[in-house]
Design goal:
The structure is a homopentamer of 356-residue chains. Chain A is α+β, with helices and mostly antiparallel strands and 356 residues long. Chain A contains ten helices and nine strands. In chain A, strand 3 and strand 4 (39-44) form a beta hairpin. In chain A, helix 7 (182-202) runs antiparallel to helix 8 (206-237) and helix 9 runs antiparallel to helix 10 (331-352). At the B-C interface, helix 4, helix 6, helix 7 and helix 9 of B face strand 1, helix 3, helix 8, helix 9 and helix 10 of C.
Amino acid sequence: MIKLTYLKPGTSPSALQIEGCTKGAPPKITLCTYDISTFEEVMCDDASDAIRRMDPSKNNWIDINGLADIETVRVLGTHFNLSPLVIEDILTSQRPKMEHLDEGIFLITSMVRTNKEKEGEVEIEQLSLFFGKTYVVTFQPEQSRDSFDEVRRRLRMEGTLIRKYGPDFLTYTLLDTVVDHYFPVLEMIGDDTELIEEALVERPSRNTLKDLFHYKRVLLEMRRGAWPQREVFSHLMHEEKGLVCDQTRTYLRDCYEHITQIIDIIENYRDLTTGLMDVYHSSLSFRTNEIMRVLTLVSTFFMPLTFLAGVYGMNFHDSPYNMPELTCRYGYPAFWIAALLICLGMFIFFRRKKWL
Amino acid sequence: MIKLTYLKPGTSPSALQIEGCTKGAPPKITLCTYDISTFEEVMCDDASDAIRRMDPSKNNWIDINGLADIETVRVLGTHFNLSPLVIEDILTSQRPKMEHLDEGIFLITSMVRTNKEKEGEVEIEQLSLFFGKTYVVTFQPEQSRDSFDEVRRRLRMEGTLIRKYGPDFLTYTLLDTVVDHYFPVLEMIGDDTELIEEALVERPSRNTLKDLFHYKRVLLEMRRGAWPQREVFSHLMHEEKGLVCDQTRTYLRDCYEHITQIIDIIENYRDLTTGLMDVYHSSLSFRTNEIMRVLTLVSTFFMPLTFLAGVYGMNFHDSPYNMPELTCRYGYPAFWIAALLICLGMFIFFRRKKWL
Amino acid sequence: MIKLTYLKPGTSPSALQIEGCTKGAPPKITLCTYDISTFEEVMCDDASDAIRRMDPSKNNWIDINGLADIETVRVLGTHFNLSPLVIEDILTSQRPKMEHLDEGIFLITSMVRTNKEKEGEVEIEQLSLFFGKTYVVTFQPEQSRDSFDEVRRRLRMEGTLIRKYGPDFLTYTLLDTVVDHYFPVLEMIGDDTELIEEALVERPSRNTLKDLFHYKRVLLEMRRGAWPQREVFSHLMHEEKGLVCDQTRTYLRDCYEHITQIIDIIENYRDLTTGLMDVYHSSLSFRTNEIMRVLTLVSTFFMPLTFLAGVYGMNFHDSPYNMPELTCRYGYPAFWIAALLICLGMFIFFRRKKWL
Amino acid sequence: MIKLTYLKPGTSPSALQIEGCTKGAPPKITLCTYDISTFEEVMCDDASDAIRRMDPSKNNWIDINGLADIETVRVLGTHFNLSPLVIEDILTSQRPKMEHLDEGIFLITSMVRTNKEKEGEVEIEQLSLFFGKTYVVTFQPEQSRDSFDEVRRRLRMEGTLIRKYGPDFLTYTLLDTVVDHYFPVLEMIGDDTELIEEALVERPSRNTLKDLFHYKRVLLEMRRGAWPQREVFSHLMHEEKGLVCDQTRTYLRDCYEHITQIIDIIENYRDLTTGLMDVYHSSLSFRTNEIMRVLTLVSTFFMPLTFLAGVYGMNFHDSPYNMPELTCRYGYPAFWIAALLICLGMFIFFRRKKWL
Amino acid sequence: MIKLTYLKPGTSPSALQIEGCTKGAPPKITLCTYDISTFEEVMCDDASDAIRRMDPSKNNWIDINGLADIETVRVLGTHFNLSPLVIEDILTSQRPKMEHLDEGIFLITSMVRTNKEKEGEVEIEQLSLFFGKTYVVTFQPEQSRDSFDEVRRRLRMEGTLIRKYGPDFLTYTLLDTVVDHYFPVLEMIGDDTELIEEALVERPSRNTLKDLFHYKRVLLEMRRGAWPQREVFSHLMHEEKGLVCDQTRTYLRDCYEHITQIIDIIENYRDLTTGLMDVYHSSLSFRTNEIMRVLTLVSTFFMPLTFLAGVYGMNFHDSPYNMPELTCRYGYPAFWIAALLICLGMFIFFRRKKWL
């Protein structure tokens, strides 16, 4: 599930020889230009087009949806004066982090979402963004279609806080959206683990084990994203270059607390999945134990009886010592009485052992 | 068991579109107005009514019991000048925390109580409160009926410390009540795990496993509440705006030590439940082992005997080489002697293996 | 095993409504008055009597043995000017801690001792004490009879360090006694776990499991006491009000190192008990495996043979096709040869599987 | 897998009596002399030859490939004024670390690579290097042939950053190569563990267990190398003697972030391998359980039937009480009906137990 | 294995009433007097003799081999002005630590060695030493004969560093010897665990389990010694009283790094032994599973066949309904065909279950 994209070992960061990167459709580039009273949304042909249309007197949000085309990133990088290392960061797998640019801030975050189509699947993707005094540029991997739709909707409405403040508040809103997406995922995992728990105790199967391990993997991945994200918020809150205004700081603190809570819940769920592994195992042992008990009961009841029947099926003859029981008047009823006594003895034995 | 309430991802905190929140009856609002010599307790119709009746020259305690009605919180928020983020915090799931308001302090705590009706059930709920120079406002989710009854009783009595000091001491008393409720819950869990241990060793069943895992979940949840609560007390003790007087600080330190002790006990119990999982498992293995031993003993005793009986039940004839034993004078007694010798051999073998 | 005493939730600390506290006999109060040249030891009737007999020009040690009578503690608290919170601490379960009083220091420690009567049992109890310029007051729960006997013996002898120095050195001696009692307990646990290990590998039983889990519990409890105790010694060593003289500080450092070593050993033993749980489990699996092997061997040897014997016990007749073997001259010897060949085949198969 | 080389206990570091060191071919010594416009690459005969050929006006990179010959290291050590302790560090197993020399910096790093020949094998080796104002000297154990080939290729090209900057940038490039080699290894492990997971659930075998434990070992070793390496980068970034220029520092930060990410992934994989151990175990238990169910079903169906058949194979006769069923008109059909009824009963019983 | 020696609880440190201490032969006392040009080695009769022979103008090393005689330690303590607490530390079990004396430094270290006689046994013993401007005094428990032989050999040689520098360098050399002894032990454990791993997967036995747990214990003990030892080196390196010269500090740093590396390896091995416990367990489960499969196969093949044979061994007669098969012309061949068909059916069933 961990899909790594990384530079070919030994190559220069600026060469952008990336392993694990898949070619795809060209990126969808959206430019939103807005201030407190105006709002405009344009689909751009390419990166240069978007740069040309930017209005430096307003707030500009360029959203790149799809990272298959390295050229787009390079063009934006050149215009916004990004170092080759930052461009490499956008294109390869990175931990969430914050970095100061010459005149802005660069952020990498880890987005988590439930897959609408496949029940129980969780998508984890890397969102990069940087913002300056008048612009925010976001990079989403192609498959994610609607992460920021709700934000765009709020942006279109007049009078919202998001329109009132600058790019730092838009950045906060985007980060908050990223963080809030963790909650439904955690809720789903919480509900599912409870179902799994029930299934494990009642009827453990190979698939429950698979599901359980799947969530174990997912939680590990989410945790790997969440921990450094918390640091990112902390760094952003205490940023000192004046790019983040006081109002936004207060809101970022809220974000920070949410991600802390998310981390707590993730850690709890990890503990629970480990515990459920034990439950699965114990549940199986319990069933094996029960099956064995039945087998043992049946065997211990019938083995002596079968032996007894076998004895009187023997063909010894021609001598008064040879099986006089067979010709005895009450031989056969005596056999059944003996069989019943054996059963009774067994029964008492098992009762005392508490196996019955 | 973790019941999350959270904002819909992408929406603004001030929009209060909350997921996981259940509609319910209107809140019960109680206002206590008191100073060292007077005490008055009124049930209010709604939030505005409570605000109107407040007496700024005395200490006022507004208790909101039930959070289904967002409007109530909003009205109080407007009057006490709370930011939308604080209102969101009251209505959604949060970690215990302390936050400075413009002229007061806002606290979220995690309350734990045994369920009176369902044996072994533990209720965990979020209590929010804020206090200023002359008021304390508390928010309890509806289901909790009597968490603060005992405090109200002490408030009604003249001469108690709680009447002598201001809202900060009332806040301490409420927090102390929250913390002290952990002890009976831990006591219950301690007693129950000892019962479970005994049950596990003597007669492991599917239900003991369920109970054990239930307590594992509860302890994880309690721990998630207790750790940040400790930080809250520490922050409150070292608050510097003069809202907490020295006397109260001393008492808060006591609270701080209690929650530290609670955390220690929770961690111990978590270790014990994990250990008990192992005990359950080992106990099952032990029983399986014992059952197997009986099965093996019975099988190894009777299988050779049955074979022997089978041999002499064969119908070979018409040749002196064919089963001369059958017509031998002491054939049948010899058979029994052989059977006894086989049994004896087995017995010695098992004795040496220490299986008997 | 964790026996909690705590305030009823919601009640005031000064009300002393304690849950989990058992009534008992009145406390035994001993007063020792000593300086470098004199020593006097009196049994007092009650707390007031002890206070009256104190000699402020010498060192006084009041030892309260038994905490069932709340009144005794209250009287001493009033005389020594203790806050209600300190009195609560003496009477309820607390973590080891150090607290500054107006003119003295208050300490809570956790004492561990082997139970003389019940083999393998460990008693953990809370000892509280406070000391000032001229006095030490110690509180022991009733059941402990002789924890400080050895100290009293040294006090009676002239020329010992304990007589030379003041109450701080007496306090150190008492704390050192508390710490030194951990060693024989750890030694006992160490010896017992080695016996348990041996028992586990050779003949795992239900009782070894119980013993093992018992020690797991004990170690967890000891650890809960030892960790904060280390902090207590550290705080006491760095106390700055001049109540602890330099000589005593050096000795306290020794104590501090001992408790650190104790913590190390406890952690090691915890790791070992967890490992032993695995050993128990593996040992059981090994035995089950061996038993199964015998069962499988016996079954696979005798099942085919029994079938063969069964075949020639059938009664087909009246047709030349029906069991001509039975009348064949060497039918019966051929049967035995077949049986032996089957056994040989099995034997080779099992040898290659390394089951024999 | 941990191959330790260390000094014989008690001997002096300067004596270089090394245990665990294997003799081999003489080292391959390559000298690259370059500046922004020129580049020269020579194979040297021995260490003295390389020292002689160095051009102090340019950047020099001496690469020692193979550490079997202690003399080579000693000669270089004498020329570059290394202390005996540094020479010991190059020749024995060490943790990654950074150390200040008189006029340079000495680094030990841990290199990880997939073995091209053996699928799934990972090679971990120690690379030592030191650099000064005009030189870099690297030491590779012999078996590694091409770790730095890609770097040499970039060095040969004019206009690359590596040619522009000094030995500190070359050092960064070498370190970056070391770090980047971790990614393909982690990718391989990630892919393999997914295959192992599938294999474990579907058809657990002894080899999957071996593979799993192999990766556990590898991850532990990689982790042992990665953690201190992170410190090395941190120290190097904050080096204060002016040997590392600002540009290089920025690039080193990138390296630092990569190694942090690598550590995160290693820790995740460690958690996963532990989880997979549980999966293996549970998967086996599940299969055992299933096999047992079949055995129990077969046994419980056929044991009573076999007994019944045995009964009617008995030879009781000569009395009207002895087996009148045998001569009964519908005796045999009745037998089959009884057999079917027994089967039916069993079937219903197992259905209710959910074993069928 | 943890052999504790400690003061009897409640007794004074100066009384030296030590529990767990065994009486033995008198100590072997060696005095080495040396400076850069001279060296003398004498066996002394007792402690006073050694003190008398010391030459204050040279470096003196008194080595006490054997701690059974408390008097020897007391005499040295008096001469070198040691506090009773230090004397207690030498004679009882302590964590590794460093302590400042009036005019010297006192050190406790934990020595680890392989037992030459018993394969796989590891000896852990406490070495105490103190040194001043002109002397080093070392205390070894009796059983260790040759820990410092190699050091003495180097001391005898002229021109070695050890002869050039003072007692601090000798101290370093002794500490380095202590640290270097860890490596062969770790190498042995590493080699043995690999053998154990192989044995576990191929043929798990009770002894491998014992060995594994033995190493678990050893590693825990080594770890308990190694961690504080690291602190000791750190404290010694940063000692500020001028007893340790700069040259020695550099060498001590080397020691510090070695012990850090040792700690890393110990932690790795602890993880591996825990993992091997799982491997053992899984390996057993795998074997049980395989055995069960054979048992189940044999049972399910032969049980129906035996039943069939049993049926046709029944004695129903006297009615055309009673077993007409028996007199049927092709009855017996039909029986075999039926038997083969049953086998075939079973075979197909097991193939589809992948049990064959």
